[in-house]
Amino acid sequence: xxxxxxxxxxxxxxxxxxxxxxxxxxxxxxxxxxxxxxxxxxxxxxxxxxxxxxxxxxxxxxxxxxxxxxxxxxxxxxxxxxxxxxxxxxxxxxxxxxxxxxxxxxxxxxxxxxxxxxxxxxxxxxxxxxxxxxxxxxxxxxxxxxxxxxxxxxxxxxxxxxxxxxxxxxxxxxxxxxxxxxxxxxxxxxxxxxxxxxxxxxxxxxxxxxxxxxxxxxxxxxxxxxxxxxxxxxxxxxxxxxxxxxxxxxxxxxxxxxxxxxxxxxxxxxxxxxxxxxxxxxxxxxxxxxxxxxxxxxxxxxxxxxxxxxxxxxxxxxxxxxxxxxxxxxxxxxxxxxxxxxxxxxxxxxxxxxxxxxxxxxxxxxxxxxxxxxxxxxxxxxxxxxxxxxxxxxxxxxxxxxxxxxxxxxxxxxxxxxxxxxxxxxxxxxxxxxxxxxxxxxxxxxxxxxxxxxxxxxxxxxxxxxxxxxxxxxxxxxxxxxxxxxxxxxxxxxxxxxxxxxxxxxxxxxxxxxxxxxxxxxxxxxxxxxxxxxxxxxxxxxxxxxxxxxxxxxxxxxxxxxxxxxxxxxxxxxxxxxxxxxxxxxxxxxxxxxxxxxxxxxxxxxxxxxxxxxxxxxxxxxxxxxxxxxxxxxxxxxxxxxxxxxxxxxxxxxxxx
Length: 657
Prior knowledge:
Layout: E1 4-7, H1 29-32, E2 45-58, E3 65-77, E4 87-93, E5 101-113, E6 116-121, E7 128-131, E8 136-142, E9 151-160, E10 169-170, E11 177-187, E12 190-197, E13 204-216, E14 219-233, E15 251-260, E16 266-268, H2 273-282, H3 287-290, H4 300-303, H5 310-324, E17 326-327, H6 339-345, E18 347-348, H7 350-363, E19 367-373, E20 393-400, E21 403-407, E22 427-431, E23 438-441, E24 448-458, E25 463-473, H8 475-485, H9 490-500, E26 504-512, E27 521-530, E28 539-542, E29 564-565, E30 570-579, E31 584-588, E32 593-597, E33 602-611, E34 614-623, E35 627-628, H10 633-646, E36 651-655
Helix pairs in contact: 5-7, 6-7
């Protein structure tokens, strides 16, 4: 990902600007007839033009500084699949004292009827708000009177008390854009670090010095007026196996570096990690909670009573916290109240759970640290300088001998030392109460491993009777345990599984180690299935690819500009042995195959043979990397295509004389 860092200071020279908004409601015949082939022939909708401005101003009512953001967009709808673009959601930040507000909202749909454009304005009563979280509410509205060929247009003004992040501008969205233009007016007292993310390049960028744009405490202040322009912006297409789309969409981000007040005093907002370390370790909702050994002073002896060494002590404490403090599904790096209260209530956010874990480990004289991170869906962390708001999750790290283990007690079904997949996002920052913080790679300690073994006998009537065993480890075991636990019992899970398996009947079953999460999960099924439909009693085809068959390529883009992030390496093995029992002979079989990804990135092996009267198939699918870079994408795409083709092959069996 290309990143550019700009620091705009008062010394910027005057350059002619070109930015200009467009008139609301001025729909033209050229808009209506815009040929999407110019930008994307498959587009369901196209942004004809969008324009935005952001500036810092004084709120007349409160006298406080606020951010004023104006947005205006015009979109051509081509078909019903494009109607979703008329459902608009605007996120609004709020806290206990202040919140962002929307003013001057206008929204209209324009249809070409009898040689003229007819406007249908949205009724303001059609707007509504939804509280998404403690800090976010959503403004939602839908434009009216849609039809294929409509042009929709809307604009609004957003006022925000949040000056730190100014206002992000996304050049890319899920539909292509002809013109995307953004203008910012930054007072000379404010210095922002500005970063351009994504793979699309700016078409143009202009800067000028705007005199006396703001009056503060009787002093006039000049502004840097900066305009960003991007034309013919392709749609950002999301595919499976990726982290947050915000990591890769082309956008411009702002983060406040420092403010110089009119008297000359400077307040720095770009901190060093030394500053952040002190803030976090002394914060009453973070560092103070890590220090709360007193909460566990009397509990620890009973918790670690049977533990013979430090590793077993850590495991006992980890299992205790998993049982005692239930995660309430809220993220965050700060305890909501304090860890003692969450222990008493037996419930809390991520920070409550894992700061309890750190305190308990420390109370047992184990070397415990905190690791703050950003989850996969939350996006990337800015590593150029600390931004605490980038982090939304905290886990524990315990150091025993020469080994370290990262722990998250929010998931009861995870074994010791394995973090949830949501945490597998580049690096986290280790926070120690006595030492400087440092980065640590967030890599899975185990692969996703699944082994399938089917042994059966083919009867004369074409029915196979046998056993199917599935052995799952790592994330595969976690996911399967989670799936089984959704049901009231393992028996109900198997009953529903039997309903889904239309060709296979489960006669009996056992599931071992369902609650023993440190051990592999083993499922054993007695099964029977018929491999012939009875239309030809002498010859028939048998497809051996009925266990986790790959029928669809997950990679379909011509070019993918962002990595394929699986989160974890994987290993799947399938062994099928069917005794033909003297009743059938093998006439044809699938061709053996051995293909691999470059740089030992993975492999697929397929081998079939007839050993005496036993038909055998061995299949291995391995991905050795958690992340594959964009230049490896064509190889992954071709890799899957070859597997899909190979799995279309079948055995041809002929009845023995």
